[in-house]
């Protein structure tokens, strides 16, 4: 087990380095000059050269990458934001908890509701509830998250006035207001996850409950809850856990749009604004932080495979 975990950790670190390199190169290939953006069109050539040297933009690309990565690894220093004129580490520290809160709540809700709905559909296959959930799941997968957000803002926020339509308040500062402002964004982030997990769980559970050992469990007279949760669900979890790892990546990707729609000052909206003004330092740091969380979430998924199916440890 230890050797398996070590191999996966090494692979995860390697993936993070690759993602950081690709993100760095892509950002620097985007048209436009961040120095001109920062100083304005009235800047003299001398001012441009001085700032370019200060940002290391006058050096070869690989030297720039090595300098940036060295500062990140040794001092956790992502550099100074061009747009905010502040340390990027502090800017991310303010925004990352917001995105993690939204992503965590959305992932938890989508997991509980999606897996539960999928189990119900599999056990009551062909029934009215199965048909209704299947149709709703298909619609949920096919509907864009940002469009759902716009409809909620118009209907629930503007027309009915039930919930605030934008902004962010931490539940630690004002619990009631924080929850009310979180409901619509979390709903938008979780709806696709609920739908996809329900479809996946239904499909896998239908296959598992037809196995011989499940028929044997039924023949022994075990209760339905015991057969489903103890025998069927555990053997159906590997595809579901795989989808959960993918869902975290999609939740972070969806947060980029949802935070912009609801004007939430999270990491996703921070990255979008930085792209528009070509603040490459912010974008590099944001992409790297998202990559780290997603990579280690996938690492947790890989380790859970070994727990669910011990044969994987020896492959």
Describe this structure in words.
The structure is a single chain. α1 runs antiparallel to α12 and α10 packs antiparallel against α12. The chain has two domains: 2-75; 90-276, MetI-like (MetI-like fold), CATH 1.10.3720.10. The chain is globular and about 85 Å long. It is built from twelve helices and no strands. Helix content is 77%, strand content 0%. 33% of the residues are buried. By secondary structure, the protein is mainly alpha-helical.
Throw out a few tags for this protein:
12 helices, 0% strand, MetI-like fold, mainly alpha, 315 residues
Predict the CATH topology of the largest domain: MetI-like fold
Helix/strand-derived category reads mainly alpha
Order of helices and strands: HHHHHHHHHHHH
Radius of gyration: 24 Å
Gap between N and C termini: 11 Å
Output the number of helix runs: 12
CATH architecture of the largest domain: Orthogonal Bundle
In short:
With 315 residues, the protein is an all-alpha fold.
Set out the fold topology:
Blueprint: H1 2-29, H2 34-39, H3 45-54, H4 61-75, H5 88-123, H6 128-142, H7 145-159, H8 175-208, H9 212-219, H10 224-261, H11 267-276, H12 280-308
């Amino acid at each position: 087990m230890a050797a398996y975990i070590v191999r996966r950790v090494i692979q995860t670190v390697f993936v993070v380095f690759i993602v950081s390199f690709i993100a760095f190169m892509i950002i620097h290939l985007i048209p436009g000059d961040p120095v001109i953006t920062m100083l304005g069109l009235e800047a003299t050539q001398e001012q441009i050269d001085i700032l370019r040297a200060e940002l290391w933009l006058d050096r070869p690309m690989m030297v720039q990458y090595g300098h940036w990565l060295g500062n990140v690894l040794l001092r956790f220093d992502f550099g100074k934001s061009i747009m905010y004129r502040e340390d990027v580490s502090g800017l991310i520290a303010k925004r990352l908890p917001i995105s993690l809160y939204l992503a965590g709540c959305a992932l938890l809700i989508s997991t509980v509701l999606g897996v539960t709905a999928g189990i119900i559909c599999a056990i009551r296959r062909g029934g009215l509830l199965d048909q209704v959930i299947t149709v709703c799941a298909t619609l949920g997968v096919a509907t864009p998250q940002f469009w759902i957000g716009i409809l909620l803002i118009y209907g629930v926020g503007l027309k009915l006035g039930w919930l605030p339509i934008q902004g962010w308040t931490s539940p630690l500062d004002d619990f009631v207001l924080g929850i009310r402002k979180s409901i619509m964004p979390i709903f938008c982030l979780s709806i696709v996850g609920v739908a996809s997990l329900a479809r996946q769980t239904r499909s896998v559970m239908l296959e598992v409950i037809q196995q011989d050992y499940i028929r044997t469990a039924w023949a022994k007279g075990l209760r339905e809850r015991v057969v489903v949760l103890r025998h069927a669900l555990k053997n159906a979890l590997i595809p579901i856990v795989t989808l959960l790892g993918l869902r975290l990546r999609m939740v972070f990707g969806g947060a980029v749009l949802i935070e912009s729609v609801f004007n939430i000052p999270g990491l996703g909206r921070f990255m979008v604004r930085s792209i528009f003004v070509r603040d490459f330092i912010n974008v590099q740091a944001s992409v790297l932080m998202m990559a780290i969380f997603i990579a280690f979430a996938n690492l947790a998924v890989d380790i859970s495979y070994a727990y669910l199916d011990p044969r994987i440890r020896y492959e």
